[in-house]
Structures are given as structure tokens and as C-alpha cells.
């Protein structure tokens, strides 16, 4: 790997020659020489330097962006070559949307730890759009989401079917009524934020049944929505995974309505590559086997 690029990337990242030299276990003059040699090779200045700071200029930003891709591909090559002779190991960056991350992923991680203790997972939780964006920018290796995310470099494969129910507090007079679209429209609905896979299902449900709620409240977590429903703030549409405990404890109730429960798929997402690290492959297989064990 070209040491000049590695040195430049570290300086650009830290914006400081001394700190870059320390992390690279080099002297500061040596770092300066590497940067100057790279600038001579490219025929352009890459950094703007003063006594107080170091900033990448326009040319430097171009080199930095391509450099990230080059280093990422080099690291992946090392991993794939190492995989030929070794058991699955190393860091695996997993992204999960909220419902999956909070209610399914812990069991997947427990199985992974049991069978492949040398794989070290790191987890990012967000809504479906967040996880898709992280995958595209290579901030994660694999994503598990409850909505659809479309991008030319992303492969999505369903691994489990989920069901969503309309829920209400146990004290709602709504429980005694025949539930019609008009009755639902008259209620306050508590829904997830834009970009959420659950939010998209709710919006499609409204459109299909011609429901225009009188009032919408947007909350950023499923747990907060459940607490709002339980307190009588409004009604919602949530995954059965998220409401099982509250149903068992008789804190909330399902509402019977034609067309519910609504079914949707959970997806495994990954970037399209010819080769994948063993750690990613074993985790994906573990997740996809879950559909056969339900």
C-alpha cells in the first residue's frame, strides 16, 4: 500500500501534522516529506498550512475522497485473502432499523457470539433510510431493515415476515365500537418519523383505506409510541414484535379492522460485490435461517 497516501489521509483526517506523526509512529519532518513527495507526484498542493491549522484544499478533498475508497478496497482485499486460510473473524459493522435492532438483533448477536466468538460486531441503529445511506457510504457492512431501500449498488433479500396491528389503550371507548375508516380518521394517530419503514406502512394503510386522521403526532421511537398509546394519547399501527409484552400484560389492545394485520417483509441489505468476507457471510446465513425456524 502506498505510504504517501496513508500519511496524507491521516494528516487530512486529524488536520494536524504532530498528531498524525504520533499515530503513524513517525517523526513530524518525515510526515512533511511524505506529503511534499505526494504533492510533487501529483503536481498540485493538497494542504493549506498555517501555524495554527492544516486544511485540505479542493485538490486535497478529491484525493481524500478517492483515498478513502482505495484504503477501503485494500482492507477488504486483505480480509478476503486472510479468509482463505482462517476462520471468520474481525469486526463486522451491522446496521439495523429500530424494530429489528431492538427486538430481533440481540438474539442474532447471541447466536453469532456462541458460534463465532472471533467475530466482533459493532451496531448502528437508525430508521430504514439511515441504514440504507450508511450502507451506500460503506459505514456499515450489512443492514437489516423493515422497509424497502432502493439503490443500484444495494442487494436486498427478505428474511422474515412481520405483521402490524392497530393498537389502542385498554380504556379507549373505541374498543366498544365497530371500527370503520371514519372511526379511525377521528382518532389521534401516533406515528414514526419520516424515513421509517413503519411510517411508510402507516401512510400506505391510510391511502388504501382513504383515512385522513384529524390529528397526527410524530414520535421518534417505538417505545415512546407504545407509552403514548398506553397513556391514551392516541392509537397507532405497530409490529407484533414490539407489542407482545404489552398485550400479555393487558396494557394495550389490538383493534380488529378489515385488512389487518398488515404483512411486510424484513430485509437483509448488502452492497453488491463479487466477494464477501466470511464474517459477513456467516452472519447473513444466520439471519436468513431465522425464517426457517419461526
Automatic annotation (TrEMBL):
GO molecular function: DNA-binding transcription factor activity; transcription cis-regulatory region binding
Keywords for this protein: DNA-binding, Transcription, Transcription regulation
Annotated InterPro entries: LysR_HTH_N, LysR_subst-bd, WH-like_DNA-bd_sf, WH_DNA-bd_sf
Pfam families: HTH_1 (PF00126), LysR_substrate (PF03466)
Database matches in CDD domains: PBP2_CysL_like
Domain HTH lysR-type residues, every copy: 1-57
Keyword rRNA processing: no
Protein family according to the UniProt entry: Belongs to the LysR transcriptional regulatory family.
Name used for this protein in its record: LysR family transcriptional regulator
Amino acid at each position: 500500500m502506498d505510504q504517501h497516501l496513508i500519511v496524507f489521509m491521516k494528516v487530512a483526517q486529524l488536520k494536524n501534522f504532530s498528531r498524525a506523526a504520533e499515530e503513524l509512529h513517525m517523526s513530524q519532518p518525515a510526515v512533511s516529506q511524505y506529503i511534499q513527495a505526494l504533492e510533487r507526484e501529483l503536481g498540485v498542493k493538497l494542504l493549506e498550512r498555517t501555524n495554527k491549522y492544516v486544511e485540505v484544499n479542493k485538490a486535497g478533498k478529491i484525493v481524500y475522497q478517492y483515498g478513502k475508497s482505495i484504503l477501503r478496497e485494500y482492507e477488504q482485499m486483505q480480509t478476503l485473502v486472510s479468509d482463505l486460510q482462517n476462520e471468520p473473524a474481525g469486526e463486522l459493522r451491522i446496521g439495523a432499523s429500530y424494530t429489528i435492532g431492538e427486538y430481533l438483533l440481540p438474539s442474532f448477536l447471541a447466536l453469532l457470539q456462541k458460534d463465532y466468538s472471533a467475530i466482533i460486531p459493532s451496531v448502528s441503529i437508525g430508521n430504514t433510510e439511515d441504514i440504507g445511506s450508511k450502507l451506500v457510504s460503506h459505514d456499515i457492512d450489512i443492514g437489516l431493515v423493515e422497509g424497502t431501500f432502493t439503490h443500484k449498488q444495494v442487494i436486498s433479500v427478505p428474511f422474515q415476515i412481520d405483521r402490524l396491528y392497530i393498537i389502542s389503550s385498554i380504556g379507549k371507548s373505541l374498543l366498544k365500537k365497530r371500527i370503520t375508516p371514519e372511526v379511525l380518521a377521528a382518532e389521534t394517530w401516533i406515528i414514526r418519523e419520516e424515513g421509517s419503514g413503519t411510517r411508510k406502512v402507516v401512510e400506505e394503510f391510510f391511502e388504501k383505506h382513504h383515512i385522513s386522521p384529524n390529528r397526527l403526532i410524530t414520535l421518534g421511537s417505538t417505545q415512546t409510541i407504545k407509552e403514548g398509546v398506553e397513556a391514551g394519547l392516541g392509537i397507532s399501527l405497530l409490529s407484533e414484535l414490539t407489542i407482545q409484552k404489552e398485550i400479555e400484560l393487558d396494557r394495550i389492545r389490538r383493534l380488529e379492522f378489515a385488512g389487518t394485520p398488515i404483512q411486510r417483509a424484513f430485509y437483509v441489505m448488502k452492497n453488491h460485490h463479487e466477494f464477501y468476507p466470511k464474517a459477513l457471510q456467516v452472519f447473513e446465513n444466520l439471519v436468513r435461517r431465522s425464517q426457517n425456524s419461526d
